[in-house]
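Methods — Computational structure assignment.
A single polypeptide chain was analysed. Its primary sequence is given first, followed by the predicted tertiary structure written as structure tokens.
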Amino acid sequence: MSSKSIVLIVGVHGVSGHAASAHWATVPGAQVYGLSRRSAPLPKGVIEIIGDLLDPGDLQRKLGKISFTQVVFGAYIEKPTAAERSEVNVAIIRNLFDVLEKTSPSLRHVTFYQGGKAYGADLGPFKTPAREDDPRLMPPNFYYDQEDFLRSRQQGKAWHWTALRPEATVGFGIGNPMNLGMSIAVYAAISKELGLPLRFPGTEESYRVLYQITSADILAQATIWAGQSTAARNEIFNITNGDYFRWRYLWPRIAAMFDMSAAEPVPTPLSVYMADKKPVWDAIVHKHALQPIAYEQVSSWPFADAILRLMEFDNITSTIKARRAGFHDCVDTEDMFREFFSSLRKQRVIP
């Protein structure tokens, strides 16, 4: 199958999309295209397509001459209300398929990403460990609506779909609204520059609850598996690193990765206290000859606050369904963070 794969990664500059494009590009015989509204460096072998998912005419012009066999949908548009999020995020996937179903007769598989909102992680405590067959929540929920759209469109077609549900995906991405790993790295660099310990910026409760994370590389490997496995067709899978942790034990180890001491929690809203730190970041970039990435693009403080300050309840999902279906990849979360920060240093993103 892989020898004939023509892959479209939608939302290629996001954390998930960037990793998926890099991993798909290593599959023998695969040709990978990355779709985004903006231009930015892409992994080796990935061909850039600049297009607007809200403009059907633009999509037709940009995608109309390529017949894709695999689609990975990782695009997302943030809106202030659940109804608005559902409306716009269903619109972008509908616009895409209005084009692809005419121009890609060889389409075999669609992988799309969901997340903790499918279980109500954004609303408050939920049943843990969450399972893929747990009942849905009160709509609107754009994950459900996108899924229902694809279920409907797939009827009578030759292609199949798979939904993957990660949690707080950690990987490289610029200008992404949900990027915990980059935010922790930048927060640590700024704290160190100011001569401060790496203080956990959340509450005592969020410091102690059980949590989980998904490496972007694990998610990318699951994406390729989903596109090639018959066991993944028309199924939903939770995908995480495979372990759980409490920040109270992991945070001091993260501090050590920056040669810093850790400090006890103080519920500090990063979206407020990091708002004036652009001059500090600019000085760090100059001092250490880092990549000239804008401060606004290198961090996502509201999302970091949502995880580190507001997640005061266990967030655990079961990955047994994926394991039974044949996906067994896992990684120790501490090792993941260590390797991730090391890769950021090698890329001259952080000192």
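Note: The chain has 14 helices and 13 strands.
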